[in-house]
Amino acid sequence: MSSNLRIEVAKEHEIPATAVLIARTFAGPDVETFLGNIDTPAALEATKVRHLRSWHEHMDETGRPSVVQCIHTDPATGTESLAACAQWFIFDKPRSPEMVEKPNYHQTGEWLSQEQGGPAKAEAIFRKMVADRAKWSRGRGIAILQFMATAEAFRRRGAATMVVRWGLEECVKAGIPAYLEASPEGVLVYEKLGFEVVDQSYAVWEGERIPCPVMICWPPGTKASEKRPLP
């Protein structure tokens, strides 16, 4: 990994930049367009608002910031660039049943048009994923990797690995598992970082299931009998 890359927890004023990187990374498929991840000025401004709200909600609930960023410093000019970022929702203690069952803000579609059924459609898209998160979160502290994004110029240079490993190190400190829903193509990448497939989740778009394998990286010393949903 480049010595010109460093990890920092993103401050509130830096969230808009990480939100833009996430939106541009995920822009493209129809479901992302529906959710507002579109690379236009107006859509990006709305994306910044959504991510700031999400950041504040997690901070209010846990006292923890939820975004970590990888910054590149050009050795010739000293110019700094956002190379990668990740949104980690870390819950170092078990939550109430009500909080466990509550969808993450990014899964609610609250920002979408009520008249066109946006929130209801978002609920249908993420219903299975929300249920699976609750199933594996119940009764335990957990860290959920919601988004990970890398700027095109910094792909395959270690930046993505750094923002994921930051979260895994936080999980080791807290003694909690790390959770994510991967794309089928991303499974091998996350397996190399210590995650294992524990369940099969999916999103639903226009009647089709989009596979999202559930992967967990368990803290050291976790027994095989503990690698299961809790009652």
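(ticket continues) Second input and output from the same batch:
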Amino acid sequence: MYSVNYHRANSVADAVKLLKTGDAKLVSGGMTLIPAMKTRLAAPSDLVDISRITALKGIKVSGKAVTIGAATTHYEVSTDAKLQKACPALAELASMIGDPAVRHRGTIGGSIANNDPAADYPAAMVALGATIVTNKREIAADKFFKGLFETVLKDGEIVTAVTFNAPAKAAYQKFRNPASRYAIVGVFVAKGKDDVRVAVTGAGDNGVFRAKTIEAALAKSFDPAALAGVKISADSLMSDIHASADYRAHLISVMAKRAVAAANG
């Protein structure tokens, strides 16, 4: 590590002001930034801690409308009784992230803003048709994630919350890396009042994406059997030491079927 100035922000406005100090970076759980600093892949001059800003924490459920503060931890998402009732799939997803240490420190806002191509939350946000709320605007999840570790966030823009309407049915299934528990392939399926949305993480060359062929099949019949003849192209999928593009294409189909089965109970 190296010398770095630490600031604890008292409010979102305070955090925005502090971000103008040197090469400052936001930190909440620090699950990505701190390891990057330790390996010298990141070297901010200042850290702006937003983890204790009360306005950024908590989960609200009003009917079908769900709002989750950006500084809410994975553990809090996984164990909130109101969320478990409104959208158990998202609570279950949060329980699969990392290990207990990660779940008690990492936050939903940090994960979304970082947009790791194998992270779980981006798939949930896209499949749920969520809105990403910042201190400046509201952004549809379909437009928020732009590529590997890239979002549409601008300088001085901070994720403050995510909002969505709870679906009629939903589930998330992933094939985990046995060491990191990141998704080699993860599929989130959500059936709303008028449509079906399916988002895939861990597989795409450009990060999270919607599986339109699977959506079309499930719109006709929300049943695992409806995916029997669906072919997943490997053309835009990644290959690495964990899995080839062809194997990831196979896993997308398998995880989608499992997700639909889980959603149907």
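Agent notes: The radius of gyration is 18 Å. The chain has a mean pLDDT of 96. Closing as not reproducible unless the customer responds.
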